[in-house]
Amino acid sequence: MKAVDAADIRSSFVNASQGETERLPLPGLHEVMWDHREYLGWRDPQAHQRGYVVFWKDDRPVGIVLREADSALRSGIPAMCSLCRITQPSDQVSLFSAPRAGQAGRDGNTIGTYICSDLACSHLIRILPPASDMQPSPAEVLEGRIAGLLSRIDAFSSDVMRSA
Ligand SMILES: [Zn+2]
Q1: Start and end of every Elongation factor G-binding protein C-terminal treble-clef zinc-finger domain (predicted)?
Q2: Ligand 1 centroid – CA 40 distance (Å)
Q3: For 128, left (φ over 0), alpha (ψ -120 to 50), or beta?
Q4: Which of 20, 71, 132, 162 falls 20 to 30 Å from 50 in CA-CA distance?
Q5: How far is the CA of 83 from the centre of ligand 1 (A)?
Q6: Whose CA is closest to 72, among 90, 47, 57?
Q7: HSE-CB of 109 using CA atoms within 13 angstroms
Q8: Lowest-confidence range among 94-108, 128-142, 147-161?
């Protein structure tokens, strides 16, 4: 992704009040390897149920505030992140809810989705299977995963921003 700075991030959130976006903690940005990310995602160290994702939707940074559900997934079964579609042990995938943008969100209307608990899909999709004759090359696998992740986060943000 193209880099975002602190000002981009604070002005990007579509489903949080101005007060919330002014207070929210930013991640360390100077060490981020932007070329290896499709979105910037981080958890709130103070309010750990909260998470934040920021990515470029067309030419605009779009941020979404997430809240992890209280109920954990049943342990011992695999779970799949709806953004990167990688299957992991269920304690590494969480049900997050995102308030809808605008009045709908202020009225308590949310969208729930399963996402990697650490919001690090970009890291996960780069762990590639070994090359084999039966599968596309690792480079092709990664290309497909990147395209899928970008289109699914874009669709998720469109859902959050849809006003009705
Ligand atoms: Zn994921």
Answers
A1: 8-160
A2: 12
A3: beta
A4: 162
A5: 5
A6: 90
A7: 14
A8: 128-142
Domain residue spans of the chain? 6-161
Average pLDDT, the chain: 93
- Assess contact for 16 and 47: CB atoms under 8 A: no
How far away, in angstroms, is 101 Cα from ligand 1 center? 22
Question: Is the separation of the CB atoms in 95 and 68 below 8 Å?
Answer: yes
Contact 19, 68 (CB under 8 A): no
- The CA distance from 36 to 115, in Å, is 18
Q: Which helix (H) or strand (E) holds 40?
A: strand 40-43
Return all residues near 139 (Cβ < 8 A) that are at least 6 apart: none
pLDDT tens, position by position, 84-116: 999 999 999 999 999 999 999 999 999 999 999
Contact 44, 36 (CB under 8 A): no
Beta bridge partners of residue 1, listed in sequence order: none
Residues within 5 A (CB) of ion ligand 1: 81, 83-84, 116, 121
Is the CB of residue 105 less than 8 Å from the CB of residue 15? Answer: yes
